[in-house]
Structures are given as structure tokens and as C-alpha cells.
Design a protein that fits this description.
Helix 2 packs antiparallel against helix 3. Strand 2 and strand 3 form a beta hairpin. This protein has three helices and four strands; from the N terminus they run E-H-H-E-E-H-E. The protein has one domain. By secondary structure, the protein is an alpha+beta fold. A four-stranded antiparallel sheet has the order 1-4-2-3.
């Protein structure tokens, strides 16, 4: 397996004056990371396909997104150019794989997140950190 790791850089929460229960920041981060991990096989497969035409393809993809309140849907999934060193086709593997997924159950607060994926040929996947 060649997909190396997913690590959490940060997750900020915005509240909207809600007085009801919501995830703690740590729980929100962990649940969001677990959601992203459900797409690791799809991302890994996409990256492996790209390696067939470019065996030295590698780099870091930093993504940012918003977790919708209530529905948990990820929106505004974009790469952060300042934290991305991988070619655009690798970044596309990540952003495409994350389209249409949702944190379940949703939360009463909107979440703003930044996660990092590192890619290297021949590397074994490592557990997410953060």
C-alpha cells in the first residue's frame, strides 16, 4: 500500500448560540477523522492508479472543509495551496473522494477543519495523528 498517512492539523468549531448538547472539540475531531478514514481505500486506489504512469509521484495534500451543522455534510472541500506539495492530480484524488460524505449524526455546531494527507511511493499507511 502506498498511501502514507492522514493527520489532523486543526478543527475549529463555531457556535450559533445553541444551548443544546454538542460534541466536544476532541470528539468532533475524532469523529471527523473517522469519517475521512472511510474514504482511505478510494484515495489509495486513485493514488495507486496515478503511480502507474508516474512511479515517483509524491507529496502532501492539505485540505480544508466545513462540516454543516445538523446534517454533518462536508462542504467547501478545497486544497490549501500553502500546505500542498503534491501535484494537482493527487489533490484531486482526495477532494473527489470526500465529496458527498457526512458526519453521522450531525452536530449542532458548524465545524471548520484542516487535514493533511501525505503520499509516498512504496510507503505503508500509518495511523492518523492529531
Amino acid at each position: 500500500m502506498r498511501f502514507v498517512r492522514l493527520s489532523l492539523l486543526g478543527l475549529a468549531l463555531s457556535t450559533f448560540g445553541c444551548s443544546f448538547a454538542a460534541r466536544s472539540p476532541d470528539m468532533y475531531r475524532d469523529d471527523t477523522r473517522a469519517l475521512l478514514e472511510t474514504r482511505n481505500d478510494q484515495i489509495r486506489s486513485c493514488y495507486d492508479d496515478l503511480l502507474k504512469s508516474n512511479p515517483s509521484l509524491q507529496g502532501r495534500v492539505t485540505i480544508r472543509f466545513v462540516v454543516e451543522p445538523d446534517t454533518g455534510m462536508l462542504r467547501d472541500i478545497t486544497t490549501d495551496p500553502a500546505g500542498t506539495t503534491a501535484p494537482p492530480e493527487v489533490a484531486q484524488c482526495v477532494t473527489s473522494a470526500l465529496q458527498g460524505i457526512a458526519l453521522n449524526p450531525g452536530d449542532k455546531r458548524e465545524g471548520h477543519a484542516m487535514f493533511v494527507y501525505d503520499f509516498a511511493p512504496g510507503g505503508a499507511p500509518a495511523a492518523p495523528t492529531g
